[in-house]
Design a protein that fits this description.
- α1 packs antiparallel against α2, α8 runs antiparallel to α9 and α16 packs parallel to α18.
- The protein is built from 19 helices and 3 strands.
- The relative contact order is 0.04.
- It is mostly helical and 389 residues long.
- Helix content is 72%, strand content 2%.
Length: 389
């Protein structure tokens, strides 16, 4: 009897193994059936334009199989693209709260949740989401960009500067980062100027210069601050740096140098600058022509201007040339026509944009250091050509 028992043991073990395997397969088939049921039920709700029920059904699947995380992330993005931000937030929030998903999946869901918050206007929540991603190997660059955009929208320039400095310390600097931090310092300085805290403004602008050696904005601002304090010689020294950094901004520096020279009663420095740069833009050669006219050289000034207009015609130049011709002529009917034409050209100039973004083509009549269209710093510059410089 004992011998028979020993002979039956292998048979019993084999039978148990087969039955156990069949039980596991049945459980897997049952779970797969439940999963498929929820999945197709959710899709059916979605296609039937019942997104609330679809969200409820699909969220249940997370408890069944974490492999569906990518599907849920895509579902949340789908809702966001449709403008249904409450549903997108709900889907992505549920994913972030699940402990069974992997850290990488949680980071992906957290990034999408942050984007949901940004579009919904919940910038503080979005900031918290992206701050958690700064230590992520995969998403830290996207998180930094999103945080920069948030700080720009909320005008928290100090926090933007702190973020940029941490990035430079941990990941090195870049041209784009240097440009951005320089403008952040300038925005901070502009606040100090409005508060009449000019010493703080000047120190902050010096930091902007250190951040980006090619920048012109802080030099222009320093020139304006010096003029407001009647430090005209200092203003000229600051403004002389503008063409050395970016010649396209000379047209903004020349009027300020003219103002400072007139206040000093000495145009020698202005003449020296114009001798070097007078053919670079319409504003500079018009300044030279005005100096010649003041010295009584009206005819010579008109000849110089006419020659320059043949090479580089501009509306501003035509208007000035007509003004010089009017000064030289005796009053008659032809002069009245010339005066009318000058006024029409002047009105046309007022209606034309003065600045254009080199990145997206946005144009306007005021300086925008941050392009309102493409949101890039330092891309808006004075327009060149017939309508501009």
């Amino acid at each position: 009897m004992l011998e028979l028992l020993f002979l039956l043991l292998p048979v019993a073990a084999g039978y148990g193994w087969v039955m156990g395997r069949n039980s596991v397969r049945q459980a897997q088939r049952k779970q797969s059936s439940i999963l498929s049921k929820h999945y197709y039920k959710g899709l059916n709700f979605l296609l039937s334009d019942e997104p609330d029920k679809a969200v409820d059904t699909l969220i249940k699947m997370i408890n069944l199989d974490s492999d569906t995380v990518e599907t849920h992330i895509a579902m949340g993005k789908f809702f966001r693209h449709r403008g249904e931000l409450d549903r997108a937030i709900r889907v992505h929030q549920n994913l972030v709260s699940k402990e069974q998903i992997s850290p990488a999946q949680r980071e992906s869901a957290l990034k999408e949740l942050g984007k949901d918050y940004v579009l919904a206007g919940f910038l503080e929540r979005a900031e918290n989401a992206f701050l958690q991603l700064l230590n992520s190997d995969k998403h830290f660059l996207d998180a930094q960009q999103q945080l920069f955009d948030i700080y720009q929208a909320t005008k928290e320039w100090g926090r933007g500067i702190e973020l940029a400095e941490n990035m430079m310390e941990n990941h090195g600097d870049s041209d784009e980062l240097c440009i951005r931090i320089s403008h952040f310092y300038c925005e901070q300085a502009a606040i100090y100027v409005r508060k009449n805290e000019l010493n703080l403004a000047e120190k902050t602008l010096q930091k902007a210069i250190m951040a980006d050696q090619n920048t012109v904005r802080p030099w222009l601002m320093l020139g304006q601050i010096a003029i407001s304090q009647e430090q005209y010689q200092t203003a000229i020294e600051y403004l002389q740096q503008v063409p050395l950094r970016d010649i396209s901004w000379l047209s903004e520096a020349i009027p300020l140098i003219e103002q400072s020279s007139e206040a000093l009663g000495d145009t020698s420095q202005l003449e020296s600058i114009l001798n070097e740069y007078w053919q670079q833009c319409a504003t500079s050669y018009l300044s030279k022509v005005k100096l010649m006219a003041r010295q009584g050289l009206t005819k010579e000034a008109a000849d110089v201007l006419l020659d320059q207009l043949r090479k580089h015609p501009t509306m501003k130049g035509f208007k000035t040339l007509m003004g010089l011709y009017i000064e030289q002529q005796a009053p008659d009917e032809s002069m009245n026509s010339l005066v009318l034409l000058k006024e029409l050209v002047e009105e046309q100039i007022k209606q034309r944009p003065k600045y254009r973004c080199n990145s997206c083509g946005f144009s306007g009549g005021q300086i925008h250091w941050l392009c309102p269209s493409c949101k890039k710093w330092g891309q808006v510059k004075p327009i060149k050509g017939l309508d501009g410089e």
